[in-house]
Amino acid sequence: MAEPLHQSSVIVIHPGSYWLRIGRASDPYPVAIPQVIARRNHGMEKDRFEEKLLHRNGIGHSGSCAHREQALKMVEQAIWSRKTSQGHRRESVHTSEVHSFNDSVSHQSVDEFTDMSWTDTANNAEYFIGDQALYLENSSDYNIQWPMKHGQLNLHNNVGGSISAVIQDLCTLWGHVLDKSLGIPPGELEKYRAILLIPDIYHRPHIKELVKLLLIDLRFEAAIVHQESVCATYGSGLCSACVVDVGDQKTSVCCVEDGLSHRNTRVCMTYGGKDITRTFTWLLEKARFPYRECKPETTMDALLLIELKETFCHLDQDFDGIQILDFQVCYPNQPMLTYQMKLGDETLQAPMAIFYPQLFGVVDEKMTFTQQRNQGDPEDINDELYLLQTQNQQQQQATKLKTDNGVYMRDDQAGLQTGLDGLLLGSVTQRTSSPLIGQCQGEMLMQAEEAPPPIISRRISTSQTLDKPLGLDQAILYSIDCCASDETKKKMYSCILVVGGGVALFQGAAEMLQQRIQTKMPPSFRRAVDRVEVICKSKEQDPRVTCWKGGAVLSYLDTTQELWISRTEWEREGLKLLRERSPFVW
């Protein structure tokens, strides 16, 4: 009989786009650091690469400003059309008063110095990670890389953008945190197991590389991969919910029922909290931001702008009129500078961009994605594509035999369905019997029924929504509308769980999202659903760690113990273990 697993020997890893959250399953909270690495550049200066903190492609084009101005008018109308909780119209703001005040503001110097300091580079270290990488006074000798982008591996055509380079950066970064922050040296990792949280819409080749990183490069004893949305329900103690994860660079929506993520309901948008920061910066510039030396392309000023967004922005309709706000500009080894400024609706307009993504100013870039069909992998010779092909060949032979016998039969759709049924039933038989895997079998059989073009009546046209950026409320409606039954849809409307730090921390976020969903949901469900409930702080815990908490809960489940992929098994059998052991349809 196997010894019981101690949670202190399980490491839960949640790699976001900006933050890396990692810790023992027995810890109350994870270690959280910016997932950035600065490597010394040994090549020529022209080969150096630095990814700016607030940089994004698709902004700054000729049509970007026009998109933003048009969207801003829509946001202003939406704000004005909604009354305060007391039933009053919002107080109008005169921009001339805001501009004249901010133009006249000058900073005040505080005699005391900040406790911040630049990173010490005297020892010529080969790399720095996290805050040390951000606080480099002179970064010209280093390549600054963010290994994750929009929840996926950050592959690009510059130095350090290949998949091997990105995996090496993650190996260095995760290994450093395990050693320095958790006190687990590299040689001790063979005694530990890892739970890796991945996005709901995942890229299979990337997940394969990450599992290889855990088991081969870092040498963990075993690993499990699970989806963020399902772990979010575990971390919040919910059986079923429409999970809305708004992170730094991506926003994903998915309906989870009894520990299963419904494949058809998954939708991901490539915008998040960082885009709100950029929008707030643009609005500050329009309001004559008194810190005129601010350069968003520099790291220290970018960090300041992120802090201003987190401090001042909100989604509360009761905050109206002109606000007088104080903020400080802090640089290492320099006196603090104090500023005052006046703002009107800018603090509400910026986070409202999550509902009007045109305000982000991104043009000529696809921003909405759904789960794509598996493209296959040569390492897994028995994947679903191979099985589908063999099943189709058998069906074609049977059809030809009937035709030769004088019975003409033409039913390609039935052949495809039969092939998929055979694939899924064949795959199920390879799995170990357990309650959690039994749920996966049920999902797989359901997928077989949904393989042909969906027969669900969609009230939202796919062609009209997925070709353009979806607002958060539209994405939620679309995701719920993709559920298989009206009963499931009602269940999802009754429990919308918002996690991540992109929106959930804004004051008034739950009320704003609830009002927008209730207004736009189909009338039939408006009558059937007693109450649309939006949860931004489940159990009063930080929504940024909900998914990580769910990963820790996963390690306690008895059914989890049959899903571990050991290092020796991976070395022997490789990729097919993900298909056979994953607690979701691979």
Structure class: alpha+beta
Biggest sheet character: 7 strands, mixed
- The CA-CA distance between the termini, in Å, is 30 Å
Task: Tell the overall outline.
Answer: globular
Describe the structure.
The chain is an alpha+beta fold and 586 residues long. Among the domains are: 7-49 and 125-229 and 546-581, 2-Layer Sandwich (Nucleotidyltransferase, domain 5), CATH 3.30.420.40; 64-117 and 273-360, Actin, Chain A, domain 4 (Alpha-Beta Complex). It is built from 20 helices and 21 strands. Strands 12, 13, 14, 15, 18, 19 and 20 form a seven-stranded mixed beta sheet that branches. The chain has a six-stranded mixed beta sheet with strand order 3-2-1-10-11-21, sandwiched between helices. The protein is globular and about 85 Å long. The two termini are 30 Å apart.
Describe the SSE topology.
Layout lengths: L9 E6 L3 E6 L6 E4 L2 E4 L23 H18 L13 H10 L3 E6 L13 E3 L1 H4 L7 E4 L2 E2 L2 E2 L9 H18 L12 E6 L5 H14 L4 E6 H9 L3 E7 L4 E7 L2 E2 L5 E3 L3 H14 L12 H14 L10 E7 L5 E9 L2 H7 L15 E3 L13 H21 L7 H18 L5 H15 L12 H4 L6 H10 L4 H8 L2 E4 L9 H12 L2 H6 L5 E2 L10 H9 L10 E2 H7 L2 H6 L5
Helix pairs in contact: 6-18, 7-9, 10-11, 11-12, 14-16
List keywords for this structure.
Nucleotidyltransferase, domain 5, Actin, Chain A, domain 4, six-stranded mixed sheet, single chain, globular, 21 strands, 586 residues
